[in-house]
Amino acid sequence: MKINRILLILICFSVVSCRTVRQVAVKKDIPVITENKLFRNIESNGLDYQTLFAKRIDISLTNGKGSNNFKASLKIRRDSFMQISVTAPLGIEVARILLTKDSVKFVDVYHKRYFLSDYTYFQEKYDAHVTYGFLQNMLTNTFFNPDIYGTSNKRYKLNRVDEGYELSTVEEHALSRKIKKLYKKRRKNKDFILILQKILIDPQSFRPLSISVEDVEEDTGVSVNYKNFKDFSGKIFPETIIFGLFSESAETNLELKFQKIEFNVPVESNLKILSKYKRIE
Predict the structure, then answer these.
(1) Each residue's pLDDT tens digit, 182-203
(2) How far is CA 133 from CA 17, 30, 79, 141, 194, in A?
């Protein structure tokens, strides 16, 4: 079992992407709205919570080689910490992840090893601008700007599509040495990459339905989709969150299905690193 993949998929919303964009007809009953009003509605309809506790999450990791199933729990104290505990089918804990505003801790209980870092790790290794707030918003169905390059003052194009309101932007980014290595065969002489980012907003709840980051020239990409919104403890939340990584030759999906969620209940972090565990450098 490659438990590390779960950590990487959850927090590495960083692999640049691409797939041909499907044209969707405008649905007549989607009301016309200005961009400013849309953002005001998004802000006023955001998930109102201080803590979140999902005692049971069914996780399915699927790729070209097959699939693995796990159970997990998730604790969030807003703007403080997020903790994920992953168990194997027999109920044995195999991994625990603790994210705070300034640190990333991962304990591989199964192999008795651990990893400690801060968020600069993702910038240095994956050339990705990842923050605690970015990850917290992604896991709580809160609107966020999928700005993996740290670009400020982003301007979106607003369209009405069949499912709701689509915000999109295309930006040119300089290729770093890390990204150039990924494309060394097909992009030997290219110094820039065109990134298409799209966010689909539900026209009634004004919550994100999907977010994608796409490379307009290469068949690779990442996405997150929120499905089957239900009432959990009096709050509307997606029953299923699907993270996707796709390339020209492979596709990987990580599906989280929430069985029960409680809001505004006491939660505490309890990650411990035993002295016998070996640190992953």
Answers:
(1) 555 455 556 677 788 899 999 9
(2) 22, 30, 7, 12, 25
